[in-house]
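Chapter review: from sequence to fold.
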Amino acid sequence: MAISNPFSVPRRRALQALGGAALGGWRLGRPNPADAQECTILSSPALTEGPYFVDEDLHRGDIRTDPATGVLSSGVPLSLAINVSQLSNCAVAPLVGAVVDIWHCDAAGVYSDVGQNNSTGSKFLRGYQMTNRGGNVYFYTVYPGWYQGRAVHIHVKIRTISNYSETYEFTSQFFFDEDFTDRVYRAEPYSARGLRDTRNSTDGIYSGGSSLGSTTVSNAGSLLLTTLRERSGWIEADAKLVVDLSLGSSPDQTQGGGGPGGGAPPGGGPPPGGGPPPGGGA
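The token string follows.
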């Protein structure tokens, strides 16, 4: 797959489509009290943070580079749009001004700033953005690689801040269509690693349930699949999340993020530091 620069391509049209998709098929507005019990809108599944979250305080949209060295992570460019909505009284509305962190491994399966990955001090493929008035954020990254025991995924954390204090936190993961990933992984640098050992169907986190809320059934990952489009030398991905602030923050499950049964990725990893929310803004 030849690689060109995707980041000069406007994404306004894709955003408009994403905003519609985020609301499509859901009953909007104030529900009738007579059928309040019939509401079928569910919040998105909350999944484990995993052992590799680091609160780097990197406010940036393009997360491909290591800010210390300027080295660009190799891989097929990925433009990721995330729409975040909040659920209240069986209606959804954009969650505005929320901090959205993402982090994932590189094409070789390595996370930055992790001692067991020999990457301490690096900060590639990490960063956060603030949701706009439509509840949208954009990131420019590379298609994630894989590591033993896990399907291909990107971690995401949403936090709301008021008066310099965190008021809400939601953590989950995004997954990728297997056939699409197979096509991407035929190209370098992914192809050099051989066949991956875990797919969505055999990933314990994908096939498990949410850690809070009403979406506690199995196969939670099927509700967190990105919508993917192949462009000329790059990939466009849309993802959406619906959060219910009334359910409280996601439980901290840092010990269970790495393998299909909740173990850590090869080599293990230190638990995240749990520092203050990034940015500190209201």
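Two observations follow directly from the output. The radius of gyration is 18 Å. Residues 77 and 142 are 4 Å apart (CA to CA).
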